[in-house]
Amino acid sequence: VELEHIFWRWDVSAMVFWKGYIREYGGQEYLRVILVDEQGTKMEAVACGDHHMMFNNVFIEGETYDFLGVYFTPTYTPQRPIWISECPRAFREFEDVYRQPVDTFADVIGMVVYASEIQDRGDFWRRPNRHVLIMNQRKNFIIIHVNDPHLQHHMWEWRRAAYQFKTLAALHVKISTMRGGVTTTDYSQIIFSPICSDVYDLKDLCKRIRAERKQITKTASVLTLAIINK
User: Fold this and answer.
1) What InterPro entries is this protein classified in (predicted)?
2) Whole-angstrom distance, CA of residue 37 vs CA of residue 43
């Protein structure tokens, strides 16, 4: 969309990357979402007036929708510094992630308790991957199937993170067909020891379970093998 065309009406297809909460400004309620097109380009969309409630009930993060007859508005860059949070303010509970439809996206955070050796998927291309198990405060687990480019970007971090029970945030990971698992994509982001409130709660858990390191690691390894071999 060129600048001179922004006020035209457009039909576009895009995936809902992130959906906010309904908020009010100047006496009018609105809904903000972040959309991603096929090339991975992100754009903010705002629904207001009579449409915000409908979109709030319909939109699901990770799903793709067709938007008919929409307008684009230029964004003016402010002169003041902009601070963007590295992590979301809140993460979904693992139980909620389990219930999401396959191929939708979620953000998860937890303590790394197990990282497998690098292995291939056993398919025609023999693509390498690694299984990483993270645990939340309720001692529930979720498996992250780590693929490239994240496998190479954090080559030396995975095993050390598991040994030290480091906190890991996995952003925009895809719900896998395998129960209790998510998969990284090219658009995912892996953050070790992120700066957010969940990290402090997980640090307390880490201190309490260090004495159980051997048993937790063994349980995590067995659980990972049981899930991936189903």
Assistant:
1) NA-bd_OB-fold
2) 9
Q: How many domains is the chain partitioned into structurally?
A: 2
In this predicted structure, what is the pLDDT of residue 208? Answer: 74
Residue 135 has pLDDT above 80, yes or no: yes
The verdict on whether omega for the bond into residue 194 sits within 30 degrees of 0, i.e. cis, is: no
Looking at per-residue pLDDT, the higher value among 215 and 182 belongs to: 182
Enclosing H/E stretch for 13: strand 10-19
At 132, the pLDDT band (50, 70, 90 cuts) reads very high
Distance CA 61, CA 173 (A): 11
Residue 69 structure tokens? 């007859």
Neighbours of 101 (CB within 10 A): 9
Please, is 29 exposed, middle or buried when counting C-beta atoms within 10 Å of its C-beta (0-12, 13-18, 19+)?
A: middle
pTM of the complete model? 0.58
Same domain, 142 and 217: yes
150 touches 134 (CB < 8 A): no
Given this model, what pLDDT does residue 144 score?
Answer: 92
Helix (H) or strand (E) run with residue 43 in it? strand 42-48
Instruction: Identify the DSSP state of 132.
Output: E
Backbone phi, psi, residue 124, to 5°: -65, -35
CATH value at residue 46: 2.40.50.140
Residue 111 has pLDDT above 80, yes or no: yes
The answer to whether residue 84 sits within a structural domain is: no
